[in-house]
Each structure stands twice: as C-alpha cells, then as structure tokens.
Design goal:
Blueprint (H helix, E strand, L loop, with lengths): L1 H22 L2 E5 L2 E4 L4 E4 L4 H4 L7 E2 L1 H10 L9 E2 L15 E2 L6 E2 L8 H9 L27 E4 L2 E5 L2 E6 L6 E6 L4 E6 L4 E2 L2 E4 L7 H23 L1
Parallel strand pairs: 6-7
Antiparallel strand pairs: 1-2, 2-3, 3-14, 4-13, 5-14, 8-9, 10-11, 11-12
C-alpha cells in the first residue's frame, strides 16, 4: 500500500511537470536564447545584442540596417535570425491604422495578440504595463521598470538589456519607407519612418533544443504502469 502511494505521488508530480512545461510561454534554452512555445519562435536573450556584441555603438539603427544585421547574424549555430514581425491584429488583409487603447487595432496600446511578436513579448511573456490601460486611464506602473520611468535599460524576467525605447517591427510594404515599431518604454505600437534610429531584437522561427516533456511523460507512464502491475499482482 505504501509503495502504491509513492508511485502515485511520483505520477502526480510528473503530470504536474508536463502541465507546467506545456503552459509555459517563455523557456530559457541556455546559451543566450529564449523559446516562446506559443509563438514557436526563439529570441536572443539579450535585447540589445547589436551593442553588447560590438556590432553597433549603441544598438540603434535605421530599419534597413537593422534588417541586414539580423539577416547576417549567426548565433548559437543558427543563421536564420530576423527582426520581429507582425501582421494585422484585427485579422484583415490590410493593417488597421485607427487608434485604440484596448489592443483591437494595430496602432495603439495593450496589444496582446500573438500577431505582433514584440507586443506579445512585452505584454504576455513579460507582463509589462502600458502608459494607458484598456480604458484609456494613465497607469503609473508602466514600462520596463514598472514605475513609469523611461529611458535606459533593465533585465526583465528572463530577458537582458531590454531598452526603454522603440524597437523595429515589420515593414508596411516593400519600398514604402515605413515600418512598424513597438515602444518598450510605454507599450505603444505605431508606424515610423524606416530612416529613424531604433533598436533591433533578433528572433528566429522554431525551437533550438528538444522540449524536455518526453522525459517527464515517460516518468508519468512508468509510474502508472507500476500501479497497474501492483493491481494485477493483487488480483492474482
């Protein structure tokens, strides 16, 4: 009976481990890379690697330079890095340029849609707040420092060197001269001239390491098989 209880406890613990892993949205893969298992992308852990790697003096670049930096980056043995992308949060073919504070349009605050990788990282993975809440009311706890302070950088959760400033997103359309940007100082997404000097955060599609669920699942299965074996022996 005591052995049965032990096996059951192990099974429950293994089940919890599987559940926790499945629900996690940002996983530290080591070697400076973070995996988002909801968007199925891997981010550089350093949100200003262009500077810390010595590539650029401060990490700020025009959109074309930032795109080239990400495209030519080799990190962790991977060479398919890019800038963060976004598509219309409203699901339409064209972007919704109207302003909102509740995250329902591409231009505004509180965008939690996975269609904007930067906004999703800021709001969902890191749990940061915007200058305005979804009702348009000022929030003194906005920004990467959680106290309304802007400028500088902070380590937030698993992310290092997150700049309290704007980051480049996707281009509107080829040759348009405009690209989307996401401002990590206040949670605001908007379009801007590609000639402006903003930060770049590299991301790549997919995972960089096997997800450690199978081991936990095997442990859970083994414990259940042990319980079944005990029951069979008891029946005999």
């Amino acid at each position: 009976m005591e052995h049965q209880k032990t096996l059951l406890a192990v099974a429950l613990l293994a089940s919890a481990a599987v559940t926790d892993t499945a629900q996690a949205s940002l996983v530290d893969r080591g070697s400076g890379m973070l995996y988002d298992n909801v968007l199925n992308v891997t981010w550089l852990q350093d949100a200003n690697y262009a500077k810390t790697s010595g590539y650029d003096a401060d990490g700020k670049m025009g959109w074309n330079s930032a795109t080239a930096w990400a495209a030519n980056l080799v990190f962790g043995g991977f060479s398919d890095w890019r800038l963060a992308t976004n598509t219309s949060v409203s699901g339409g073919v064209n972007y919704n340029y109207s302003y909102s504070v509740n995250g329902t349009t591409d231009y505004g605050y509180n965008i939690t849609s996975p269609k904007s990788e930067l906004a999703y990282m800021y709001h969902v993975n890191l749990g940061l707040k915007d200058y305005l809440n979804t009702s348009g009311v000022y929030q003194p706890t906005f920004g990467v420092f959680g106290n309304g302070t802007t400028g500088g950088q902070a380590n937030v959760g698993l992310v290092n060197n997150l700049q309290s400033y704007a980051y480049w997103g996707a281009e509107y359309s080829p040759g348009s001269g405009f690209a989307w940007s996401f401002d990590a100082s206040n949670g605001y997404q908007v379009g801007t001239f590609t000639s402006n000097q903003l930060y770049a955060w590299a991301v790549r599609p997919g995972d960089v390491a096997p997800v450690p669920v199978p081991g936990a699942a095997w442990l859970f299965g083994s414990a259940l098989l042990g319980l079944l074996g005990l029951k069979k022996r008891k029946a005999v």
